[in-house]
Amino acid sequence: HKNHIDGSPITQSCIGVNFVACQLFALMMAVWFRIYLHPSKTSPFIRHVVATLLGFYLALFCFGWYSLHFLVQSGLSYSVMVFAGLEHMHKYCFIVTLGYLLLCQITRVYVFDYGMYSADFTGPMMVITQKITSLAFEIHDGLTKREGQLTPSQKYLAISRMPSLLEYLSYNCNFMGILAGPTCSYNDYMAFIEGTCYQPRHQENANGKENGKYKQSEPSPKNDVIAKLCTCAISLAIYLSLCQLLPVEHSIDDDFVSSTPFHLQVIYLYLAMLALRPKYYFVWTLADAINNAAGFGFNGYNKDGSPRWDLISNLRILDIEFATSFKMFLDNWNIQTALWLKRVCYERCHINPMAATFLLSALWHGVYPGYYLTFLTGIAMTMAARAVRHNIRPYFLVSDSYKRIYHVITWAWTQVAISYTVAPFVLLAVGPSLKFYSIASSCIIDTLKPVKQKNLSSIENTTASAFL
């Protein structure tokens, strides 16, 4: 039994309850914020102050004095923005912000308790890191580059003036996103605070209803909030029902491996990963609902005139579970983080941007070796998926029946590939991760041996016949 309080199951449960309680409190505050501190009733200054103070209160309640790291990280980065030259400010800010996050992660993992998830104050810091670095690049684009040098996305995100300290803290630490995000652009957040977020800004999202009657009235997020809360309830129920029944660690248990056929091991691994995902569905969907309840997240209208509240949504569950490619899965999982990686790394790195993006993602996630094994595997899987799509997919486009067969095969392959890739991410340590790889490799080799022997036998018979 663990005698220290930080790693005990009781403490972990208490912190989990604290997190959920804080998020439910944030949900109620979000409704109050939208109704009583509406932009038509109060100034942006008051909205910034209230959002920031409520965020600090939730952080202090949930993480105690660990939450001071949020202020230190934000303060150091803001100092870099103010005092460093505009030409290199974004690079210095990126190094300082990510470096401070890594320092906290190393301390938490290797000094306090390896494998400890309780009191994980670095979780909110990961989102703050995304916001700070995005903001630095957007300021750099807005103040040092000409419009012709920017992509359409960068033009929209570019910031033409340095934010005040209050605006900066409100953006980083507001109560709607302090605990679980999601990341959003600074311009979108300011439009929400100032009450201009209902004006169409994304031309690619515009449709006939933008210029019609639906544009004139402020849409209500009520239906979307209720739907997302129902999704949260279902996700939490599924996770609590299955997480203890299907632990990923069981897939490397010696007795399980020795007594279970390979195809059943693959199915178990898929089901174990399937049982883990609802935890993320719950956290991210609840965070999205909180922002929507406050009036943040409006993204135009659908063709039928109904409002869309997915501007900062972090996932699309059905597209994840029925993904037919590695890319499709990644595009719909942790969407805002994928956008951050694309904007600060993939679009700006001139040397092997894909590898650089995977490396940054691994560094941002933390210092567990399993993270790096997962993202290294992810590079290989992405290259393999591209090769398969380029070379094999055309043969299945000749008819609808072939297309359906292709979709079924690629769905199964994608789910297995994702499960194989993500397993070290869950196992965390080097030993269990390498054991998992070893078991998988041995099982594949054993499965292919009869085929190989059959082919060799066939070659031998053919050679003998030719000789005779």
From TrEMBL:
GO CC terms in record: endoplasmic reticulum membrane
GO molecular function terms noted in the UniProt entry: acyltransferase activity
Any single Pfam family the record assigns to this protein: MBOAT
Coiled-coil ranges per UniProt: none
Location of the protein in the cell: Endoplasmic reticulum membrane
Transmembrane regions: 15-37, 49-69, 89-111, 225-248, 260-276, 408-430
Main location per the UniProt record: endoplasmic reticulum
Membrane topology: Multi-pass membrane protein
UniProtKB keywords: Acyltransferase, Endoplasmic reticulum, Membrane, Transferase, Transmembrane, Transmembrane helix
A single GO BP: lipid modification
Name of the molecule in the record: Membrane bound O-acyltransferase domain containing 2
Source organism (scientific name): Sander lucioperca (Pike-perch)
